[in-house]
Amino acid sequence: MIEKLALIGIGLIGSSIALGARRAGLAKTIAISTRRAETLDEARALGLGDIYTIDAAEAVKDADLVILCSPVGSYEAIAARIAPHLKAGAILSDVGSVKGHVVDVVGPHVPAGVHFVPGHPLAGTEHSGPSAGFADLFENRWCVLTPPEGTDPKAVELLKAFWKGLGSDVEAMSPAHHDMVLAITSHVPHLVAYNIVGTVDDLEQDTKSEVIKFSASGFRDFTRIAASDPVMWRDVFLTNRDAVLEMLGRFLEDLSVLQRAVRVGDGEALETLFTRTRAVRRSIIAAGQETEAPDFGRPHGDPKPSEPASE
Ligand code: NAP
Q1: Gene3D superfamilies per the record (predicted)?
Q2: How many Å lie between the centroid of ligand 1 and the Cα of residue 16?
Q3: Is a pLDDT exceeding 80 seen at residue 310?
Q4: Which of helix, strand or coil describes residue 68?
Q5: What domains does the chain contain, in order, with CATH numbers?
Q6: Which residues contact 116 (CB under 8 A, 6 or more apart)?
Q7: What pLDDT, on a 0 to 100 scale, did the predictor assign at position 309?
Q8: Span 35-47, pLDDT tens digits
Q9: Pocket around ligand 1: residues whose beta carbon is below 6 Å from it?
């Protein structure tokens, strides 16, 4: 058990950590800091922590584990603000969806004697804010840690144990590898979803067509991803540019091949690809990362999904 946990930023991810840590008894005291007073009041009303403050420096005082849970674009300023107040021997971590950038902007602020172990839980929903969190969010989901070379193994083990206590499986890798893998598994899919929903929205306005009415035929599933937090995702694309452009290049090449197959009527090429992609989904289900219930387990007759899907 950690004596004091400090969470800077208390939206979907921060509040889920607070609820999960409380439920599993991982921290005696939880200090919460966020930018806006209204959000802090909301966190207090939900009973997410023990100490509430607008001042991140006050929240991290005497904390054994500090986790940055705000949008990645805010990390540098927060790191500069809290660095002089971190206790010797404390672990400083984060949950940011991008890792190379975090190492670059937070790393230089970390004082000697503080262990910097960046992290990223591969779990989320399209909802934001303190009331969006739930204690089960990280259960059976991966959490990736990217400790810089030479990090004290005891600090890494402690953070691993913390995430395991929240129900996650934990794996360590380099920040560059993380950013490349996440570019294709998360960042480009979000870009595609934002794009297709934007295209449909333009079309809807131009033609007054019936895309919203008939959205359940496929479009609706993209809208879940495209409803994700605009500030968080803006920051992801601003801070993982190289890996996203690399994967986007491959995606566009493959899309051109598909476009040609449609144009020339190459049914065999289309069927071969669609068979391969169906197998990919089956392997994700077999790995326990998705429900095998048809249509994401949506109860038919009720348009609401039964459970939130992942990032
Ligand atoms: P969120 O629900 O929008 O919450 C963000 C929180 O950060 C809010 O409490 C916001 O509160 C606070 N905040 C914003 N700017 C701040 C600043 N300058 N200083 C202090 N607090 C600030 O976002 P989230 O989904 O929890 O995402 C948080 C982090 O988790 C991001 O770095 C994201 O990359 C990562 N992540 C997200 C997901 C996902 O699916 N959502 C999954 C894995 C990792 P105020 O109202 O006070 O501004």
Answers
A1: 6-phosphogluconate dehydrogenase C-terminal like domain (1.10.3660.10), NAD(P)-binding Rossmann-like Domain (3.40.50.720)
A2: 12
A3: no
A4: strand
A5: 2-173 (3.40.50.720), 177-264 (1.10.3660.10)
A6: 91, 92, 93, 106, 107, 110, 147, 148, 151
A7: 44
A8: 999 999 999 999 9
A9: 8-14, 34-36, 39, 69-72, 74, 78, 95-97, 120-121, 124, 128-129, 132, 229, 232, 311
